[in-house]
Amino acid sequence: ASVPHTEIKRICCIGAGYVGGPTCSVIALKCPHIIVTIVDLNPARIAAWNSEDFALPIYEPGLEDVVRQTRGRNLFFSTEVDKAVQEADLIFVSVNTPTKTSGVGAGYAADLNYVESATRHIAQVATSSKIVVEKSTVPCRTASSMRTILESNSRPGCHFDILSNPEFLAEGTAIADLYNPDRVLIGALDTPEGAAACAALSSVYANWVPKERILNVGLWSSELSKLAANALLAQRISSINALSAICETTGADVREVAHAVGLDSRIGSKFLRASVGFGGSCFQKDILNLVYLSESLHLPEVAKYWRSVVDMNEWQKLRFAKTVVDNLFGTITNKRIAVLGFAFKADTGDTRESPAITLVKSFVAERAKVAVYDPQVSHDQIWMDMQSACSTPKQELSKQLTLHTDAQSTFAGASAIVVVTEWAEFASPNFDWEGAFAAMTKPAFVFDGRGIVNGARLREIGFKVVTIGRGENL
Ligand code: NAD
């Protein structure tokens, strides 16, 4: 029989990553009466969360402040998974679900190995009943597998209720998103136990989220909603990017088009900014997941439909790389290309699936000299990403690739500046474009992959400016 979970006193979060870390830190801040322990198998990551100087393993505006207020009070980071699981009333499973790289569904399907291991672990060590919450993004019906694993491995007297509570935070604005979410989605089985578990988790969020924003739905709707949300967001980017290509050859300006269509209240103005393409660990992974799910359900047309969103994104990245080469008279061999930004978007140090990786790889393949600057991403990370993308050791790669700690030092002798990440620094009126121009080979080009530079000012200085989605280029 199910134990009615009315009050949550202790929470454990398995996975101290981009989601588990910020999400459960905010829960600890907003619920001082709940003890929150975030655990991870990776001791280096936990050590960073516990570091005295708050050198946290991820960069997120406002995160350090939250951790400073809560760590040691009611927030703890630990590698002692068993203890935290045993003590908790509610356990978030917030482990990684990357795309499978080999075997069945390679390149599409989610690798559920981490979710399964964490679930088995909970069943094996738990000595009392728990609510287990699927926080990771997973294929629809994963909760059913988790439930079977929990039920087949639990100790006598332990009952597990399973909930789906997908996370909608965006990296770069994670803390603001967690403070003020558009909605908190909780999926539960349509049983009295499911309803009780759902009420218990809802009451945690109700400490700061208005009740009308806490949405209770069925388990499978909740799982699918997360994939659907990311697929639709990515689809908007691919749609405006597809239009940006038409703009460039017709003289239309994608900003004007986006503004005009966005005023239609049925369409809305958000997420309509043309760019070099989307990146990040989620959009591509989750759409590919949906593609695989559709194929598994024998729905090839549905799979093809969502696949086209990823194909358009790939094309946009390569199209932008080709624009750079074409404008530089068809060759960039031995020319210096200054790349501004490496993170997949501003206000994060995350480089997973960053368009910068594709671009730098293309420039390296064209035998250019590439100089990269990002205000947040560590050089170690960039070396790791580029060695892996180019399958070339650092020593060899360093003949073509240099990493810089400021923007200005990338410009010496450069033929082009390529703006890849929309960091505020690059759009600032104080950015020294005059200094950049003076240091560069002429003609000096700026390729704006984010539509953030002031083209008129740059042209006045003498630059040739190419912006994604603008017909008035150069
Ligand atoms: P991450 O890789 O940053 O963190 C996952 C952590 O889980 C890692 O530190 C890993 O060591 C740990 N882990 C794996 N198996 C474990 C186990 N058995 N026991 C203890 N720790 C274990 O991943 P993330 O970006 O936080 O994403 C987590 C999930 O949330 C994914 O499913 C992702 O799709 C989803 N999600 C991510 C975002 C985002 O912006 N990054 C947003 C919404 C949802």
From TrEMBL:
From the UniProt record, list the coiled-coil ranges: none
Species in which this protein is naturally found: Coniophora puteana (strain RWD-64-598) (Brown rot fungus)
Specify the pathway.
Answer: Nucleotide-sugar biosynthesis; UDP-alpha-D-glucuronate biosynthesis; UDP-alpha-D-glucuronate from UDP-alpha-D-glucose: step 1/1
Keyword Iron-sulfur carried by entry: no
For the UDP-glucose/GDP-mannose dehydrogenase C-terminal domain, which residue ranges apply?
Answer: 338-455
Q: Does the keyword Oxidoreductase apply?
A: yes
What EC number(s) does this enzyme carry? 1.1.1.22
Question: Which NCBIfam families does the entry mention?
Answer: NDP-sugDHase
Give an example GO biological process. glycosaminoglycan biosynthetic process
Starting at the broadest rank, the lineage of the source organism is: Eukaryota, Fungi, Dikarya, Basidiomycota, Agaricomycotina
Query: Which Gene Ontology CC terms are recorded?
Result: nucleus
Q: Which UniProt keywords apply?
A: NAD, Oxidoreductase
Q: Where is the active site?
A: 282 (nucleophile)
Protein name (database record)? UDP-glucose 6-dehydrogenase
Name the InterPro entries for this protein: 6-PGluconate_DH-like_C_sf, NAD(P)-bd_dom_sf, UDP-Glc/GDP-Man, UDP-Glc/GDP-Man_DH_C, UDP-Glc/GDP-Man_DH_C_sf, UDP-Glc/GDP-Man_DH_dimer, UDP-Glc/GDP-Man_DH_N, UDPglc_DH_euk
